[in-house]
Amino acid sequence: MMDSLGDSPDPYRYTSGRWLRRDALERESRFIRFNFDALCCKVLELCPGASSVTSYDKKEGGFNRVFIFHTDNAKRIVARLPFALAGVSRLTTNSEVATIKYLQAETGIPIPKILDWSDDASNAIGSEYIIMEHASGISLHEKWPTMDVSDQIRCIEAICQKLKEIVDLNFPAYGSLYFAETPYLPTSKLLLNREFCIGPHCGAMYWNCNVGQPRYYHDTRPNQGPWLKIADYCDGLIDTGISKIPPAGSVSKRPRYHGSIETHKKLLYYGRAMLKEMAKSSQIQNAATPVMFHPDLHKRNIFVSEEDPTVVSAIIDWQSTSIEPAFWYADAIPDFAQPVSDPSSEDKIEPKSEACAKAYDFCIQFLAPKLSVARSMEEAYLRPFRYCYRTWEDGAVAFREELIQTSQHWKELGFAVQSPFPLPCPDEITVHQKEYRLFEAAQQLRHSLSSLLNTASDGWVPLQDWEGTESAHWEVFEGMLQEKVVVQAFGLLAGSAGSAGALALTPIARDPHLVAFYASLTAVIPAVTVAFWLAFHKYDAEASAAERDACRGDVAGYQEQTESRARRHSADSAPKLDPVDTGRPLSFAVP
To answer: Which residues are 315's β-sheet partners?
Structure first.
């Protein structure tokens, strides 16, 4: 039934890369114990005329393992098995299949045919799975670089025409699609017709399946929907945020801006009141129409004709598709519409990418009015929605900033009642602003340094680059711990009292806040020294000239050394991408 596959990739273990942080836990969460021979036999059953599997390719993303099987009758069959962190068991697979079947029935969007599927891991294969025909055409990711700008724009228009069919669908609630006769769905499901229903949101953000992010339900109940009204949807966001707050006594040291357990609970209390009040407004309700959209729209998930790349032949990866308020999708920009910086250009944007960005914006405006309404809204309306469900990951300061900004513009936004969030007093604002500068510095450091060493934002490194990157990580980490500049830079960033000289004499290990903040950066990116001077110089304007001068020379020297290391470890390497086309982009969060 199968040719010798002795040299083929390991089907069970994650082998595409390693993580600079929580490596063992990340890889363990992507291990799948299943019967590979049974999967091969199932593929042959579904491929008439095939008697053996001649080879297979293994592709791994953030949430799935994909096998592309090649059979002896020259066919290609795709089997995808979800990792445990992809979402809640059974629901995630059931919802994806139901969504695809629904879209194939209600729209003309080209999606590969599903040959077989199972949402029950007790099957003969030993894992949930979806087996599909291979997408026709060629990946847009492969074709895009060779297309001229006119073809790129025509391709964008064709993609948006397909997406218009989804956006035009009408739904009575927020949540995820399922088959109506699914026996394990809660009674709160809402029937769409005899075959499909809206049930709980299957997205991982609502469930206890994220690596290193357990859920706690001592202060709130699970709230995964479905939700009939936008106010109920807002409760789901707030309850999700509360469920991430651990019990007292179980919290490790965090950066200063992170905030205490009580601070998080208090902010989410005010956040719930603010979102409920905002949900009453016509502006929010007009932008909160229940909308379905592709959850991970980028070039790797779009296939086009090899002969004419302006013809879309398939759109794949519908895992975790959900029905959200229109404003949830309004600002999502796919990679083919992202402006690319070009310092040599007059407006500092690469002309082709600028044209594509404008084309996408124009198409969404006129082809998807539900999204267009939300895209035209004042930004302050949507601020509180951004961080409320992830305050424990980002730090309390981020959500507090959104509450402050919205409250300051409350009357301008047209709300008649008083803002439910009382603005802090001047002294509290001063403390908050310092913490927020530190939060911004942490994010900028991690983003810029991630780019410098070509790692993913969560510390993911392609396997072929692992040894060099890990070596650089520890080399710089150990060197920085011995230098005064580290303590000086962190002291200024954190707004610590005392002169630079006093800070220089204070070992970093004596301040757990500095250790936590330092670890949150170096655990992801080793070359932190590159941006130290820029970070504290830009974000702590209150630091004296003498304090800045005290660090400038040492940091400049380390910057030169670090850039040299970075060039050595990234030379001859192609730009690194997050794991390909089988899962959502790896999300950024400051620990």
So the answer is: 302
